[in-house]
Design a protein that fits this description.
Blueprint lengths: L2 H7 L7 H25 L2 H24 L6 H29 L4 H8 L1 H23 L2 H4 L2 H19 L5 H26 L7
């Protein structure tokens, strides 16, 4: 491993000008769409929660596809982390609108809106995702490369999938299953070349 790669790996996120500009621009466009589209279709704050979680799911899907790449280079790894952080921030916008605007910021209001099961799942997922972001930004390299981030990201993905396909109806269900297909396809795509590239033993 080169000295430059090692140096990059010791830092959770390298704030590369080109990469962060692209991801930030995409995130701002997604956020603007999530907040303004409901004004056009008269869906109000409910629409804002819907579109913001769709936007978050898009960034999450891209991040997971990049994370799944075997032995990713520092640029791919950094881009995956930037998309992951963007997905987190968009999800926090979704949570804020749900809890503090629609649910009036109280525990009872949140329970009435989401139900105790969904609220608990959301709280656990948010806590774990926040922990993962902190690990990316400030954690040691060995922890970022360990099993904990993989477990957290798998849980976040399953939480999104469950929420979008089992607890909702309409277009969000198709989006949820589409996200699952893309992530699973990326997993298979990255596994097959590895097996195909395995050296043959001459007899």
């Amino acid at each position: 491993m080169s000295t430059d790669v090692k140096k990059r790996d010791e830092v959770g996120i390298v704030f590369d000008g080109r990469q962060i500009t692209i991801v930030a621009l995409l995130a701002f466009v997604a956020l603007g769409w999530a907040l303004l589209q409901p004004q056009l279709d008269d869906s109000g704050t409910i629409g804002q929660t819907r579109y913001s979680i769709w936007a978050s799911a898009f960034f999450l899907c891209v991040a997971l596809v990049l994370f799944l790449k075997p032995a990713p280079g520092p640029l791919v790894q950094n881009l995956a982390r930037l998309f992951w952080v963007a997905a987190y921030l968009l999800c926090m916008v979704h949570n804020y609108i749900s809890v503090y605007i629609i649910g009036d910021g109280t525990l009872q209001g949140s329970i009435n809106l989401l139900g105790p099961t969904i609220l608990l799942g959301t709280a656990v997922a948010t806590t774990l995702w926040t922990a993962d972001i902190l690990i990316i930004l400030f954690g040691p390299a060995r922890l970022r490369r360990g099993l904990l981030p993989i477990a957290i990201r798998s849980f976040i993905f399953l939480t999104f999938l469950m929420g979008m396909t089992q607890l909702r109806s309409g277009p969000v269900t198709s989006i949820g299953w589409g996200m699952a297909v893309i992530v699973l396809a990326a997993m298979v795509w990255h596994i097959l070349p590895t097996k195909a590239a395995a050296p043959r033993v001459e007899r």
